[in-house]
Amino acid sequence: MLHTLGAPAVRLLSNNPDKAAQLAAHGITVTERVPTGVHLSPSNLRYLRAKVEHTRHTLALAPLVG
Q: Which domain holds residue 19?
């Protein structure tokens, strides 16, 4: 789709390094990977930790206070 739109390069908003690798494998240049923020809460902490530990997402998970 990006090739069809004439977009040979993108600035990627993602915490997932695999997305950049997949785009590069399809001939799309990733000029920059910009991490997105996350809303950390007690209910999603386990899920977000799993993303970091199992799929190498680049998430800064500060300790929960309070």
A: 9-55
Domain contains 45: yes
Residue matched to tokens 């809460």: 41
The number of domains in the chain is 1
Q: Which residues of 16-45 are buried (b: 16+ CB within 10 A; e: fewer)?
A: beeebeebeeeebebeebeeeeeebeeeee
pLDDT in tens, 52-63: 989 989 888 776
pTM of the complete model? 0.72
Smallest CA-to-CA distance from 9 within 27, 25, 34, 21 is with 27
